[in-house]
Amino acid sequence: MHNNALLSNPLSRKRERAGVRADVRLQQARALRQSPTTAEQVQWRHLRNRQLAGAKFRRQHPLGPYILDFVCLEHGLVVEVDGGQHADLQAQAYDRQRPVWLRQQGLRVLRFWNHEVVQQTNEVLAHVLQALTPALSRTREREVNTEDE
After folding, report:
1. pLDDT tens-digit readout, 94-148
2. Cα(116)–Cα(121) distance, rounded to whole angstroms?
3. Which domain holds residue 7?
4. Other C-beta atoms within 10 Å of 61: how many?
5. CA–CA gap between residue 62 and residue 22 (Å, rounded)
6. Cβ(79)–Cβ(98) below 8 Å
7. Which pLDDT band holds residue 87 (cuts at 50, 70, 90)?
8. Are residues 19 and 88 in the same domain?
9. Do 18 and 42 belong together in one domain?
10. Are 48 and 107 in contact (CB under 8 A)?
């Protein structure tokens, strides 16, 4: 196909714009990883290297139109850590759309305030572990069933 035909094709332009947006989100995610908040540092200290129930978490992971603070793709769990900027009315409207889209992708979402992560770390981790437990139980159940066959 001739290059001019690609440029005039609306579908090609749409894909190109989507690719540019994905590149921008990836760069934003990298920048966010370089300057985590105190709460994100605390949370990551406990989630990294499969420390919590052996679950593999990623941080500042771009997915669709969003960058997720922490996500365990294997178990379909997103953990968001929110600062004071999320109390703004405009941010609240954006934040209401986000979990709806994520649930449509088959993900569960847990949200915590920065001060909860920093001051009540064990309680936050207990909530995350509880959210992982059903997924871990289903995984173990499948492993046992396949061993029996």
Report:
1. 778 888 999 999 999 999 999 999 999 999 999 999 999 875 555 544 454 444 4
2. 7
3. 1-35
4. 20
5. 8
6. no
7. low
8. no
9. no
10. no
